[in-house]
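This section describes the prediction task in plain terms. A model, or a person checking by hand, is given the sequence of a single protein chain and must write out its three-dimensional structure as a string of tokens. No templates, partner chains or ligands are provided. The sample shown here is typical of the held-out split.
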Amino acid sequence: MDDKKKRILIVEDEKNIAYTLAYNIMQAGYTCDIASDGEEGLKKALTDTYDLILLDLMLPKMDGFTVCKNVREKLSTPIIILTARVEEVDKIMGLDTGADDYVTKPFSVNELLSRIRANIRRSAGEVVAAGASGTGEIIEIRGLKIDTSHYSVELNGKPIDDITKKDYEILVLLAKNPGKVFTFEEICSKVWGYDFCGEDEKQTVTTAVHRLRAKLESDSQNPEYVHNKRGVGYYLK
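The expected answer:
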């Protein structure tokens, strides 16, 4: 991958943060554009071509959740949310509206650049979750049916249409290896393409699994499909 040709859109209203981000990202070999409010960010995202979008949540004119949702309806460009909020609901909402990842402020430049590289690699097809590529295989586990050629999931005959890309990739990874416990590190590497899995990365995995359970399980406290091995990772029973 030639990072020098990759373009990143920074949507951030705090000028000091935006310019600092742009400086460090350009030092890493990327090119950058900056939008200072949600409306401008959405317009740039939809009218120009970017390899990744860094998106703040608290923006004037249009909040980051709305920008993310509108971008995702039309584009598959990777989106990393930048947020000072630490509440779980914000992280879930951000990823539910189509964001690929989030970084909580304050963050290190090296951490952010690592996330950027991982998400661009995945978008470019250089990292594919094991078993998540379209092979024409149909996986059936009790009432759960996964068609990997059409990237579709059905539960008891009813399609789950709002499943996100990351949720789908986790599900296929687990479903192709029933009973095998995948550690947080393995899921981070196979689904997100991360080279490192710290507490934030583990929380990203946990959030995605919680969201997946909400779609699959009638009782998420007593799951039928996706189980966890405390402190280790997840498996599909």
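For orientation: The longest strand covers residues 7-11.
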